[in-house]
């Protein structure tokens, strides 16, 4: 099965895995799972760290990239095709641009999005977004 980590789920998988839901931990531990981290998450982490909105205890955005590679997570680029087709994502009350692009990548790439965000799960369930927590 193919999974895409929401940004918070990625950070927690590296720094605080106990904060992940039980099903999410099981999916990440399953050797048959394909787990992706999007370039969008790295951009969000770097941006929020740079403006002081996110503090990473004892690491930097660069060390999170190294940790993703060490955990054999696959890196999902933001392709021009994803960026151009993003307008197809249905409008909902969920406005966060980082989340919306991750949602689009999950839907278009047929990944299950690992997220704790109930707003995402409720807003996009009817739009073919599979989620896990």
How is this structure best described in words?
With 133 residues, the chain is of the alpha/beta class. 49% of the residues lie in helices and 13% in strands. The protein has a single domain (2-132), classed as 3-Layer(aba) Sandwich (Rossmann fold), CATH 3.40.50.1010. The chain has 7 helices and 5 strands, in the order E-H-H-E-H-H-E-H-H-E-H-E. It has a 5-stranded parallel sheet with strand order 3-2-1-4-5. The model has no long low-confidence stretch (mean pLDDT 94). The two termini are 15 Å apart.
Fill in the keyword field for this structure.
globular; PIN-like_dom_sf; 133 residues; Rossmann fold; 7 helices; alpha/beta; 49% helix; PIN_dom; PIN_Sll0205; five-stranded parallel beta sheet; Virulence associated protein C-like PIN domain of Sll0205 protein; single chain
Q: Quick check: average pLDDT?
A: 94
Query: What is the fold-level CATH name, i.e. the topology?
Result: Rossmann fold
Overall strand count: 5
Question: What is the top-level CATH class?
Answer: Alpha Beta
- Choose one word for the global shape: globular
Low-pLDDT stretches are: none
- The value of Rg in angstroms is 14 Å
**Spatial order of strands in the largest sheet:** 3-2-1-4-5
Task: Give the terminus-to-terminus CA distance.
Answer: 15 Å
Helix and strand content put the structural class at: alpha/beta
How many helices does DSSP assign? 7
Order of helices and strands: EHHEHHEHHEHE
Question: CATH homologous superfamily, by name?
Answer: 5'-nuclease
Instruction: Tell me about the largest β-sheet.
Output: 5 strands, parallel
Organism: Candidatus Desulfobacillus denitrificans
Pfam families: PIN
InterPro entries: PIN-like_dom_sf, PIN_dom, PIN_Sll0205, TA_system_RNase
Domain PIN: 4-124
């Amino acid at each position: 099965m193919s999974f895409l980590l929401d940004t918070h789920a990625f950070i927690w998988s590296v720094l605080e895995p106990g904060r992940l839901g039980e099903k999410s931990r099981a999916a990440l531990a399953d050797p048959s799972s394909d787990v992706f981290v999007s370039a969008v998450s790295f951009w969000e982490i770097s941006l929020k760290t740079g403006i002081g909105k996110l503090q990473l205890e004892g690491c930097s955005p660069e060390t999170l990239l190294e940790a993703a590679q060490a955990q054999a997570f696959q890196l999902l680029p933001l392709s021009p095709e994803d960026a151009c087709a993003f307008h197809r994502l249905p409008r909902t009350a969920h406005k966060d641009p980082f989340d919306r692009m991750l949602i689009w990548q999950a839907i278009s790439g047929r990944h299950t999005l690992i997220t704790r965000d109930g707003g995402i799960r409720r807003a996009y369930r009817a739009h073919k977004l599979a989620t896990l927590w």
